[in-house]
Amino acid sequence: MNFLRFNTFIAQDVLIFFYYIFAILVPLFLWYLRPYILEKVSFFQAVDKGAISVYKDLDKEKKFLFLLFLFSLFFCMELCLRMVFEAMIGYFDMHNYLYEIATHLKGKSI
């Protein structure tokens, strides 16, 4: 019966595993599939043609600032992802502690 409990299926190790999948593998996978996405999605076709021509026309300082902006945006998204997973870990820890308290107090009168 312990196998069917809620805290058996979601553990910190599972959350950490999925965090690293989303933080490392998904950006690499998207970068690898970038040409396919730009070719097949019509929204990105229009944006990509405009973005490439705008990027090529910038001088070195503005290119550096543009790339710095993109990297900072990427790191902010990684930070948000990290905060979401930390909140889920905290939530599941709270669940475990409340479950332990409830089972410990079961049968005792307050």
- Total DSSP E strands: 0
**Amino-to-carboxy terminus distance:** 28 Å
* Sheet/helix structural class: mainly alpha
Query: What would you call the shape?
Result: elongated
* Assembly level: single chain
Binned, the helix content reads over 70%
| SSE string, helices as H and strands as E | HHHHH
Radius of gyration, CA atoms, in whole angstroms: 23 Å
| Uncertain runs | none
Q: Tell me what portion of residues adopts beta-strand conformation.
A: under 5%
Mean pLDDT value: 76
Number of domains: 1
Query: How many strands, what sense, and barrel or not for the largest sheet?
Result: none
Number of helices: 5
Structure description:
The longest helix has 46 residues, at 60-105. This protein is 85% helix and 0% strand. The model has no long low-confidence stretch (mean pLDDT 76). Helix 2 packs antiparallel against helix 5. It has helices at 6-9, 12-32, 34-40, 42-57, 60-105. By secondary structure, it is an all-alpha fold. The protein has one domain (12-103).
Short descriptors:
single chain, 110 residues, mainly alpha, 5 helices, 85% helix, elongated
Describe the structure concisely for a colleague.
This protein has helices at 6-9, 12-32, 34-40, 42-57, 60-105.
Present the secondary structure layout:
Blueprint: H1 6-9, H2 12-32, H3 34-40, H4 42-57, H5 60-105
